[in-house]
UniProtKB/TrEMBL annotation:
Pfam families per UniProt: AraC_binding_2, HTH_18
Keyword Secreted recorded: no
SMART domains: HTH_ARAC
Domain of life: Bacteria
Keyword set includes Membrane: no
Record-annotated HTH araC/xylS-type domain positions: 218-319
The protein's name in its UniProt record: AraC family transcriptional regulator
Organism: Nitrospirillum amazonense
UniProt entry keywords in alphabetical sequence: DNA-binding, Transcription, Transcription regulation
GO molecular function: DNA-binding transcription factor activity; sequence-specific DNA binding
Length: 322
């Protein structure tokens, strides 16, 4: 169901009142019509509700989302033929989203975190729980004129608790379609201020992590994914396996705005989630699934899974398997 208010210049879409099957079809049709090149995937048998309010913010467009878990993929094969050529600044108000690039590298986002997406590159968005988020769509030419090499910032981790990134996160939290009418600046200037803060935050991020460091960081994450099944994996042991000092390991993860432990736990939880959705592992108990994902303590696994996905492992499995 959709509505538009010309005086406020926004569009609102919602699945409210629709049965689950119709809600998913409605959302997929509306997203496809307004956002070419996105393929949606919904959990089987799970209820689904979603709503979005979109409003112009000068040359940019702000989308305020409230969605149940689902996946949005932007495959590389669609990029060359569709007409979308934007950057998207994604900010999470509440819930959790995992962004993945074309190589399969994951960038988990929780409340208060943001990341820049480049529509010229393939990516996927996995909304892991009921999530409220904002997406600021910025034309490539407009952002590139204010932020040289914007492509280099796409899918780069920026710690939202420090420096200019903290100021940007505060602005993204406060700006909504509902509050835009009362802003003391013209909307185009507000968009320009957001781009300026993003540029300042990017300067700090690029200074903290050079290109060769990013390449090393991504190599380490790939190696971590291959070794996550080992419950005895520690920073010291992993650093020794990779031929680097433990201090260097911690410095690389800190420069990326994360930590070894945080990344390893996120990888293990995501791997466990994939096993719970896989019919080939339906005979495995939750304890066995936790062990396969590298968790030494099943209770700890269940607690962390519930915190991350807002569902217990058993309920998550039941909703995602026939």
């Amino acid at each position: 169901m959709s509505s538009a208010d010309a005086t406020k210049s926004y569009v609102h879409l919602s699945t409210a009142g629709l049965p689950p099957g119709e809600a998913k079809a409605f959302w997929a049709d509306e997203v496809s019509a307004r956002r070419p090149g996105l393929l949606l995937d919904f959990p089987r048998e799970a209820p689904f509700q979603a709503a979005v309010t979109a409003a112009s913010l000068g040359p940019a467009r702000l989308l305020a989302l409230s969605v149940e878990p689902y996946v949005a993929n932007r495959p590389g094969r669609y990029i060359a033929r569709d007409l979308v050529d934007d950057f998207c600044l994604l900010y999470v108000d509440d819930g959790s989203v995992v962004v993945s690039d074309a190589t399969g590298t994951d960038f988990p986002l929780s409340a208060g975190q943001f990341i820049l997406l480049d529509d010229a590159a393939g990516f996927s968005l996995r909304f892991m729980s009921r999530t409220q988020a904002k997406a600021l769509k910025m034309p490539r030419a407009w952002l590139s004129a204010r932020m040289p090499c914007a492509e280099d910032l796409a899918l780069t981790r920026i710690d939202p608790s420090t420096g200019w990134a903290r100021a940007l996160a505060s602005v993204l939290k406060e700006v909504t379609p509902a509050t835009m009418a009362n802003l003391p600046l013209p909307l185009g200037e507000v968009a320009g201020q957001i781009a300026a803060l993003l540029t300042l935050a990017a300067g700090r991020a690029s200074g903290e992590m050079k290109r060769y460091q990013r390449m090393t960081f991504h190599r380490l994450r790939r190696a971590m994914r291959e070794a996550l099944h080992d419950p005895a994996l520690t920073p010291s042991r992993f650093a020794e396996q990779q031929g680097i000092a433990k201090r260097t390991l911690h410095a690389l993860f800190a420069a990326a705005g994360t930590s070894f432990g945080r990344e390893l736990t996120a990888m293990r939880l995501d791997y466990a989630r994939s096993l719970l959705c896989d019919a080939r592992f339906s005979a495995k108990s939750i304890t066995e699934i936790s062990a396969l994902a590298g968790f030494a303590n099943p209770s700890h696994f269940s607690r962390r899974f519930l915190e991350t996905f807002a569902l217990s492992p058993s309920v998550y499995r039941r909703l995602h398997l026939d």
